[in-house]
Amino acid sequence: MKNRVQYFDMAKGLGIILVVLGHIEYISEELRAWISSFHMALFFMIAGMLIHYLNETELNFKELAQKKFRGILIPYFWFSLIYTVIDVLNLCLHKIDLLTFYKNILHSITFYGSSVLWFLPALFLAELFFLFLSKRLSGMVTAIIIAASAILSYFLQIYISQFYTLYENSLLITTCIDFIRVFLRASIASVFVCIAYNLFYLLKKRTTFSGIELAIGIVLFLVNAVLSQINGCVDFHYIILENQFLFYLCAVIGSLSIILICKNCRFVFPLNFFGKNSLLIMCTHVNCYLLYAAILIAWQIDTIVTRAKSYIFNFNIMIFTFLFETILIFIVNRYFPFILGRKKIKKEVSYDNK
Predict the structure, then answer these.
(1) Is there a smaller number of Cβ atoms within 10 Å at the N or the C end of the chain?
(2) What share of the chain is helix, strand, coil (3-state, %, to 5)?
(3) Do 23 and 17 meet the contact criterion of CB atoms below 8 Å apart?
(4) Rounded CA gap, 287 and 207, in Å?
(5) Residue 40, exposed/middle/buried by CB under 10 A (0-12, 13-18, 19+)?
(6) By the 8 A CB rule, do 192 and 37 touch?
(7) Contact 314, 26 (CB under 8 A)
């Protein structure tokens, strides 16, 4: 079993911080556009690089599918159940209506995913799609098929969205459309898995600090900051990509910039820690109300420190959210590791359970 790659964990740590920040409604639209341009693609690209690093294209496909089922879909099932329990409580408290409750149940059953859980089926299917093709076809043919399927998915999304609008009052039709979108997301995500898998040929050649790589990372970061404002806010969840070319360009260069910078900077423990536990943070910060609790505390602080700027308010939200997440991480890893698809507690979590 290979050791963890620290800069992958640090990149995921930055990524999950951006995910949480992007869910704060009080940030500027410019910041939201930049975050949304690559923050989800970053996780798919790291997954692609891990496939290369772990040499998974040479392993048994059935065993790979079982491993990824345990590490990705087992958490999906557990958190879907947890979300349902929370929805039952909200239904009893009249915070949601019965239709919303039914929709959330259907989203879980169809793998569309309730709230942020959409990411897990997309990751699972994208990885398996790439691995299935890679084990049977050449790299070039695999890339062509994945690119073609992603382009087709984009136009199919536009087409079915028209039906969704026409039949939005039909729970059956909208559920069927949402089920189709599960595969459309995965198709688009597989592009990033494929690109990252091939890019890792270059990254793995140098294992020590590289000023050139760091400079490239900084340049890509700045280019992404500009291009993301041109394309505006995108939403992977609902497959709102705006300009398709700019979407892929921003997602790739933005993700690569973070990876290159993390690869060539000093070890940062908080980023590494949150990166290792990014799945748990992803699944709990919204629907388990940790972000909501942090917002309430930040509001209370804001009433005391009345002259604080908006960025101080958002900073307080982030601090308390990750404080709550840190406590939850220790509790889950110590007492409920099975929720994350782990059989036993380990000091160093392997990439077998990404």
Answers:
(1) N
(2) 75, 0, 25
(3) no
(4) 39
(5) buried
(6) no
(7) yes
Q: Compute the CA torsion angle 107, 64, 123, 160 (nearest 10 deg).
A: -60
Average pLDDT of the segment spanning 5-19: 98
Helices (H), 93-170: 98-109, 119-134, 139-166
What single-letter DSSP state applies at residue 118?
G
- Quick check: is 207 in a domain? yes
Between CA 29 and CA 285 the distance in angstroms is: 21
- pLDDT single digits (tens) 70-121: 999 999 999 999 999 999 999 999 999 999 999 999 999 999 999 999 999 9
Let me know if residue 145 belongs to a domain.
yes
R_g over Cα of the chain: 20
**Token pair of 298 as six digits:** 């930040």
Residues contacting 198, CB < 8 A, separation 6+:
52, 139, 143
39-53 vs 244-263: helix crossing angle, rounded to 10: 60
| pLDDT at residue 332, as a whole number | 98
How much is the pTM?
0.94
| Per-residue model confidence (pLDDT) at position 354 | 46
Structure-token pair, residue 200: 């890792």
Residue 107 lies in a domain: yes
Alpha-helical segments (H) within 204-289 = 211-231, 244-263, 269-276, 278-284
Total residue count of the chain as it appears in this document? 354
Name the nearest CA neighbour of 79 among 298, 339, 347, 332. Answer: 339
Does the residue 1 lie in any domain? no
Q: How confident is the model at residue 347 (pLDDT cuts 50, 70, 90)?
A: low
Please tell me the distance from the alpha carbon of residue 269 to that of residue 266, in angstroms, as a whole number: 10
Number of domains in the chain: 1
- Cα–Cα distances in angstroms (integers) from residue 155 to residues 125, 158, 240, in the given order: 20, 5, 11
Which residues are bridge partners to 250 per DSSP?
Answer: none
Residue ranges making up the domain that contains 215? 6-353
**The token pair that represents 100 in the structure block:** 């919303």
